[in-house]
Amino acid sequence: MDYQYPISLDWSTDETVDVIKFFECIEKAYEKGIDRDLLMRHYRRFKEIVPSKSEEKTICNEFEEVSGYSTYRVIKKAKSDEVVSTVKM
């Protein structure tokens, strides 16, 4: 991994750590798969930190630009496949 996660200087240290954990979940979904419940728990925490849809889109687009991983596609798949226990892209 040769990129930096998009973070805001307005976030506390705990919030920054939680956002990074969410992005790490997205990476795991692409690389080897991740437990759906764990992913959704981190996504809900991410949404507490970034409640605005426009800010979420901006941050997630920045992450996709540097990593190549789409948070939108992972979350969409996790939401649509509620019976599946593992999300793998």
Please describe what this structure looks like.
By secondary structure, the chain is mainly alpha-helical. The protein contains 4 helices and 2 strands, in the order αβαααβ. The chain has helices at about 15-30, 35-50, 55-65, 70-80; strands at about 35, 85. It has a two-stranded antiparallel sheet. Helix 1 (about 15-30) runs antiparallel to helix 2. The longest helix is centred in the N-terminal third of the chain and has 19 residues, at about 15-30. It is globular and about 35 Å long.
Task: Give the oligomer, counting copies of the same chain as homo and different chains as hetero.
Answer: single chain
Number of strands: 2
Overall 3D shape: globular
| Computed CA radius of gyration, to the nearest angstrom | 12 Å
Assign the structural class, choosing from mainly alpha, mainly beta, alpha/beta, alpha+beta, or little secondary structure. mainly alpha
Gap from first CA to last CA: 18 Å
User: Could you give the order of the helices and strands?
Assistant: HEHHHE
Major sheet summary line: 2 strands, antiparallel
Strands of the biggest beta sheet: in what spatial order?
Answer: 1-2
Number of helices: 4
Helix content: 55-70%
Mean pLDDT over all positions = 94
